[in-house]
Structure formats: C-alpha cells, structure tokens
Write a structure and sequence with these properties.
mainly alpha, single chain, binds fe (ii) ion, 2 domains, 18 helices
C-alpha cells in the first residue's frame, strides 16, 4: 500500500468514526438549543477557524476549539458535534482546502468533541454543569467535581484532535507519529489548557444572559475580547518560533553565498542527519537538535580568513589545511551566540570533525566521548560530499558510497551508526537523490489544535 492509499485509509476510518459517533450521540440528544444559539456558536467558531496559525509540521492551529468545548458543556455531544462540523466545514471552504482535507478536518473535529463529550458524561458529567447555575456554593463538592470533569473534557478533546491530525500528517509526509505529535503539540499544550478556560467563560456568560434576558447569544459579545487575546498570545508564540527558523535559514544562506560549491550542502546534511536520528529512535526534541546542529555545522566558514581557501581550485597546503580545520571551532563560537543553542547543539557543531579513532579535530576525542550528534553529522557530511558533483569529479553512486562507509567503520566513523545509516530506507533514498528535498524545503517548519492544511497529496492555495 503506497503513501496516498494509506492516507486515504486514515481519512476513511476517521470519517466512519465521525458518522458512528454522531449516530451514538444522536440516540440521546439534548433539546435543540434554538437557531440563534446554534447559529451564533457556529459563526464565532467559524471566525476563529479563519484566524488560524501555522504549526511546525504541515498543520494549522486555531482557537475555534473554545467554542466547540463551550457548546459541548451547554448543549451536549450531538449539538456540539454539529457546531464543530458545520463551523469547520465553512472554515475549510473559506480556506479553499481540497475536498478530502475538508472531509478529514470536519470528521476529526466531530470525533474530538463527541468523544470528549462521551468521556465527560460517562464519568458522571452533567449538561449543563452545576457551575453554570446561580444557586451553587463555591465550596460545594458537586461544583468541584464538575470543574474537574471540565478539564477531562478539554484534555480528551485535545488528545483526540492532536492524535488524529498527527496521524494523518505522519502518514502523508512519512514522518514518525511521535515526532509530528511532539513538534506540533509539545510547545502549546499549556497554552491550550489555559485557553480552554475561556470555554468556561463562554458557557457561563451564555447561561447567565440566557437566564436573565432570555437570549444567551448576547452574552457571547462579552467573550470576544478574551478570545481575541488568546489568539494574539498564540500568534506571538508562533512569531517567536518563526523568527528562530528564519534566523537559521539566514545563517545558512549567508555561508552558502560565500561557498557556491557547497550550495545546499548544509540543508542536505541536515536532512540526512534527521533521517539517521529518526532511525536511532531519538526523541522529537533530540531529532530537532541534531537537525539544527547539522544545519549549522559549517557556519564558521563565513569567517573572512576562509574565503580564499574556499575559492581555491587546487589542493590546500598543509598550512591552509590547518587553518581550514579551525572552522569547526569558529562554527561553535558563532552558534554559541544564540543562548538556546549552547550545550548540545554547540558541542555537536564543535566536534563534527572528530574521528572514532581519535585522529580528528579539534580535540582529538575518540569513541563515545564524541557527542552522538557530531558522529551523525560526520557521516552525513561525508555522504553528501560523495554524492554531489565536485569540480574534480562526478557524484558517486549508492554502492560506492556504502562501500566507502563500510571501509571506514571503526576508524573514521562509529561502526554502529554506519550500520544504521546504510540499512535505513530514508537515508538510501536521500543518497540516491530520489527524494532530494531537504528538511527545510519539505514543509513549513513552524510549531498545534489543529487541522491539516498542507500535505504532499494536496497542495493548498499557491503552495
Ligand atoms: Fe565541517
């Protein structure tokens, strides 16, 4: 089964689950809340849906979940499923997503809110909960139980939503589920739980105004400000993430502008290092750090002293070679300017020319004393040097590259890592150039509540 078929299978399963869950919820629905109530929730959720932010791995996040969860608390599983389904449908139409993504995103939102609602009611949660009634004392046990259950509702929603989106993104982009989930969810889970409290405010204002004035939707006006504020906080978070990524790209472009022969080299080394790190089963955070270190491993070559050496066509003299070898220390110095790169990333950059037998530079480290990421980068760096055209020779084929890596096992390279690299399908593909796209080009690298906008199967607007 190929990637497209696997993706279609996931979409079909999620859609069937949405139909099944909606049928279960419909068997015992609460009374229809009325067109005004239903419509106002749909409209606000739709507006929030259109104010989405880009996540790190091929997904978008929006704050429409605030309205889905509030609808769940007030109107129960069936009607909140309908609010989520209709608002997501309109949002997808406005966004111009292809039909299959539209079907997936509508279905996954219905599955998320109806599942959360079923978990909530199966644990004894009532709709509407006790805290929405005026005649309840803050100290009452019932109130505390219902507030606890609210967090169960919100967590279930986030869990199902992020799991389904990560699943379809991992299948369609052939990245590991754990990595996609971690990159898109890890940084924002705290924000999500915090922002979900706004759902409580939405539900509370709606019920207060409904009781006093007899028309709940007016109460929703009072929540516009906190909702906009929440969207702003997410926006700031993503801006920060984006500027970090853009800074990285700037640094890489700067070095490559100086050294035209190695144009694209850092990005390819990063892609190879990423593939080896995934193969080793490192955590998403470690994979990301390996990727970053690989991207920046030669950034020190931007230093003025290396310019004539990089332009020189013939062999370097011994003196020039010694000077050239200082580039790894220079790179580490530059990388260390960014505080979050100190430690793991900086050490990996500094030692990316150390050899397993201790004959490398700058410190002559050997064996496991060399940081793991540095050992990975050395292998990726060598593979890329062999598989790209040089002024003095054409690129080497896969078999020659593998033979060369085998030959230098235990002397230049960590033998275990070589075995992992050459048995990896992803690494072999990168070597063969069949999927030459590098990590930076593979998709928007930004970091959540999520829908699935841009995959390899369906290009979104202008992508
Ligand atoms: Fe280097």
């Amino acid at each position: 089964m190929n990637r497209d078929q696997r993706t279609l299978l996931v979409v079909s399963i999620v859609t069937s689950a949405a139909i099944a869950l909606a049928t279960v919820a419909k068997s015992d629905p609460l009374a229809f809340p009325g067109w005004w109530a239903f419509g106002s929730f749909v409209v606000i959720a739709f507006v929030l849906e259109t104010l989405n932010t880009q996540l790190r791995v091929q997904a978008k996040g929006s704050t429409s979940f605030i309205m889905h969860i509030a609808a769940g608390l007030l109107f129960g599983g069936f009607w909140s499923g309908l609010v989520a389904g209709v608002s997501t449908f309109l949002g997808e139409l406005a966004r111009g997503n292809k039909p299959i993504k539209l079907v997936f995103n509508v279905s996954q939102r219905i599955v998320a809110v109806v599942t959360a609602s079923l978990v909530y009611s199966s644990l004894g949660g009532v709709t509407p909960p006790s805290y929405l009634s005026e005649a309840i004392a803050l100290s009452s046990r019932e109130l505390q139980r219902d507030l606890g259950l609210f967090f169960v509702f919100a967590s279930s929603y986030f869990l199902v939503n992020s799991a389904l989106v990560s699943l379809v993104v991992s299948v369609s982009s052939e990245r590991s589920f754990r990595e996609v989930w971690s990159l898109n969810t890890r940084g924002v889970i705290g924000y999500d739980m915090g922002a979900s409290l706004i759902s409580l405010l939405v539900a509370w204002l709606y019920s207060v105004v409904e009781r006093r004035v007899g028309f709940g939707p007016i109460g929703l006006v009072g929540v516009i400000l906190p909702v906009v504020a929440a969207r702003h906080v997410y926006g700031l978070y993503h801006q920060l993430q984006n500027s970090g990524q853009e800074l990285l790209q700037l640094m890489v472009k700067a070095i490559e502008a100086r050294d035209p022969y190695t144009s694209g080299h850092s990005v390819r080394v990063s892609a190879l290092s990423h593939a080896i790190a995934v193969e080793l089963g490192l955590s998403a955070q470690e994979i990301e750090q390996v990727e970053t270190a690989a991207l920046l491993h030669d950034v020190g070559k931007i230093h003025e002293g290396f310019a004539p050496l990089l332009r020189k066509e013939g062999r370097l003299t011994d003196e020039e070679t010694a000077l050239m070898q200082t580039h790894s220390t220079r790179s580490a110095e530059l990388v260390g300017i960014i505080s979050k790169f100190r430690g793991f990333i900086q050490d990996s950059v500094r030692h990316h020319h150390e050899r397993w037998d201790g004959q490398g530079y700058p410190s002559g480290l050997s064996g496991n004393a060399i940081p793991l990421a540095a050992r990975i980068i050395l292998i990726s760096d060598t593979i890329d040097a062999m598989t790209t055209d040089r002024p003095y020779r054409k690129r080497l084929g896969l078999e020659v590259v593998i033979a060369e890596l085998q030959k230098c096992k235990g002397t230049q390279f960590d033998a275990d890592l070589v075995d992992v690299a050459i048995s990896s399908v992803a690494v072999r593909r990168l070597i063969s150039g069949s999927t030459g796209t590098a990590v930076l080009d593979a998709g928007p690298l930004r970091s959540r509540r999520v829908s699935w906008p841009s995959g390899s199967l369906w290009k979104v607007r202008g992508a």
